[in-house]
Amino acid sequence: MSLAKVTLTLWEKLDLLPAVGSIVVAVFFAILTGIRRTERQAASLLLHAGYALFRQATKRLSPRQMQYILPSSDQIYERYKKKTGQKPQTIQVGDGGLGHWHGDPNADNVIVWFHGGGFGLPAHSGYWKFYAQLVRDLEISGKSVAVFGITYTLAPVATYPTQLRQAVNSVRYILSQPNRDPSSVFLGGDSAGGNLVGGVLSHMAHTHPEIKPLPVEGQLGGAVMIAPWTLMDTEFPEMEVYHGGDIITTAVAGPWATAYIGGRKRDYYTDLSTAPKEWFSRFPVKSILITGGSNEIMLPIIKDFTAKLKEGYENAELFIGRRECHVAPFSNLELGDPTKTEQGKRIEAYLAENMV
């Protein structure tokens, strides 16, 4: 099941203490120097310090160490539901993947969401807060909607294509429900989850040789890709990068990509940025919304991917949230800032425009 976790060596355990110490120092320094901030940095001191915490943690700790420290995605879901007085509703979608419901499973529209975290980090509580916010506000606008949040087996416990297979299984499960028209099903994902959105659409259009086909009559209602990680290079492209306004650094590319690929050969399912324009033309979805933050280090990659996507798939939009970091709609909520992000607003409007 998706809650499988790694065990650490003695050295990895001993390394946790100095790593945590470096994180504390980074946050303290950010507070001291963050009273006055530029447009390239977070809008509030709370977020500025929180981003520093995320940067140092993801830079200093390996995916294995972070999995050891953090509760699993499934445990986070259980705790969130208990805290909010709701009954958990979890479905096994196959091959170890789990789907967690937020909202009524019989709603007119379903969003299947794949969380980010470099394929190696669990879905924190910010995800469930965002899902709740999304369902509530869409219902206010007259839309009946539920979110089916997918938790997949993390790398390096499992490697590609396990996560893609679990993602495909989750969509297969939703589409197999009685009276569920594809036009009422939406895909969503952020960072690594955005990669899985692209992977699922790719599989639906071009069957992956190791995954059962997923035919669909008609088109899905839409897809949202927040800061999609569509290039598994272990080093960022040669470009000028400023880390101070984001939650990740270029240091994550190597360990996270290596853990996910696991020695396998990269392809268009893992690296959608490398696919030819013809690859996108058969994507069975009515439209795709891609978002990013103006302060995130992956922005050049996101823009490049969007340009390539539009060469073969015309109904795609790119929206950039001013002064926002990588996956800001979730990161900010996890840090205690309930202010709706510009990306979050656009995503909500996009879904309201396209839902039945």
From TrEMBL:
Q: Which GO terms describe its molecular function?
A: hydrolase activity
Give the matching InterPro entries.
AB_hydrolase_3 (IPR013094), AB_hydrolase_fold (IPR029058), GDXG_lipolytic_enzyme (IPR050300)
Q: Which UniProt keywords apply?
A: Hydrolase, Membrane, Transmembrane, Transmembrane helix
Domain (Alpha/beta hydrolase fold-3) ranges? 111-327
Q: Which stretches are transmembrane?
A: 16-35
Task: Kindly state a single biological-process term from the GO annotations of this entry.
Answer: antibiotic biosynthetic process
Could you tell me what this protein is called?
A: CAZyme family CE10
Species name: Penicillium bovifimosum
